């Protein structure tokens, strides 16, 4: 899954579960190393619209 690999590539991301069927991603991350805005940017770069 392209979006999962992209999110996993961010520094500080520790766990990613993606369900394309449910249009949902659950991301665990270290707030000291990344933030929600960076994750949303990566999701958008892969062609999906973050909410």
Describe the structure in brief:
This is Mercury ion binding protein. It is built from two helices and two strands; from the N terminus they run H-E-E-H. It has helices at 2-8, 36-45, and strands at 13-19, 24-29.
Keywords:
51 residues, alpha+beta, Alpha-Beta Plaits, two-stranded antiparallel ribbon, 2 helices, 33% helix, globular
Q: How much helical structure, as a percent, in the residues?
A: 25-40%
What's the β-strand tally? Answer: 2
Total domains, how many? 1
Placed side by side, the strands forming the largest sheet appear as 1-2
Class inferred from helices and paired strands = alpha+beta
- CATH architecture call: 2-Layer Sandwich
What's the CATH topology label?
Alpha-Beta Plaits
Give the end-to-end Cα distance, rounded to a whole number of Å. 19 Å
Strand content: 25-35%
Question: What is the rounded Rg?
Answer: 10 Å
Protein name: Mercury ion binding protein
Domain HMA: 1-51
Organism: Methanosarcina lacustris Z-7289
GO molecular function, one term: metal ion binding
